[in-house]
Design brief:
The protein contains five helices and 13 strands. The chain is α+β, with helices and mostly antiparallel strands. The chain has two domains: 42 residues, no CATH class; 156 residues, Glucose Permease (Domain IIA), CATH 2.70.70.10. The strands form three sheets. Strands 1, 4, 6, 7, 8, 10, 12 and 13 form an eight-stranded antiparallel beta sheet that branches. A three-stranded antiparallel beta sheet has the order 5-11-9, with no helix packed on it. Strands 2-3 form a two-stranded antiparallel ribbon. The protein is elongated, with a radius of gyration of 27 Å.
Length: 223
């Protein structure tokens, strides 16, 4: 008779119940043993490993402008085949560019950033940079969050992502300067932030609706 069965005898005289109680006690001991072992492993792990476990929590404590800029320390890539500029185009959001178009390092990995990030840190209004038609309004929880894809009359597309709210729908006509959405991207505060650490607008310019046709938005936007 093992220790657990002896303890079970104190609680009941039934042999069947004693076995059941001993099995439950063994399960509880194993469960807390695993938890205790995991805690010890974390506490005794090297400092760099422990810091990586809580890296994302640290990111949330950085200011909005800093946190977006921190991920964008790659060398910007200037597109080699810009589209023809028919007119001058305003900025979609009156904010600060926190991440350029091109290469960057995100969560320790090299990544291509296919647009620019503009931030005010607030739910500020976003405008359409040219006349066009809303081709797509969708939610991409893993990346863009709530986003709009607009086909413009001048022959290009723009994508606005990490939106807190959209004022337009698919198929709707929009005019240059019209407010189409609100800046978003704050996890826990904005409804569909997507892959974002703070409020900002991810803005793309494309030759076509296809993601592979993206170009540097700064080619079009007025200085």
């Amino acid at each position: 008779m093992n220790l657990f069965e002896r303890f079970a005898m104190i609680l009941t005289r039934s042999r069947k119940r004693r076995k059941m109680i001993s099995y439950v006690i063994v399960g509880i001991v194993i469960f807390f043993g695993i938890i205790f072992g995991a805690v010890i492993s974390i506490l005794t792990a090297p400092a760099e490993i422990r810091s990586s476990l809580f890296h994302r929590d640290e990111i949330k404590r950085i200011g909005v402008l800093q946190e977006n800029s921190a991920y964008c320390n790659g060398i910007p890539i200037i597109d080699s085949s810009p589209i023809k500029i028919i007119s001058t185009y305003p900025w979609p959001l009156n904010g600060t560019v926190t991440c350029q178009y091109g290469g960057r390092i995100l969560y320790g990995e090299d990544e291509f950033h296919g647009g620019i990030d503009i931030s005010t840190g607030k739910n500020d209004p976003i405008i359409s940079i040219a006349d066009g038609t809303v081709e797509r309004m969708q939610i991409d929880k893993k990346s863009y969050g709530l986003y709009l894809l607009i086909k413009h009359d001048d022959g290009f597309y723009t994508l606005s992502a990490h939106l807190a709210h959209s004022y337009v729908r698919e198929g709707e006509r929009v005019m240059q300067g019209q407010t189409i959405a609100l800046e978003g991207g704050e996890p826990g505060a904005d409804p569909y932030p997507g892959r974002s650490t703070g409020r900002h607008l991810h803005f793309e310019v494309r030759h076509t609706a296809n993601q592979n046709s993206r170009i540097n938005p700064l080619i079009l936007l007025t200085k």
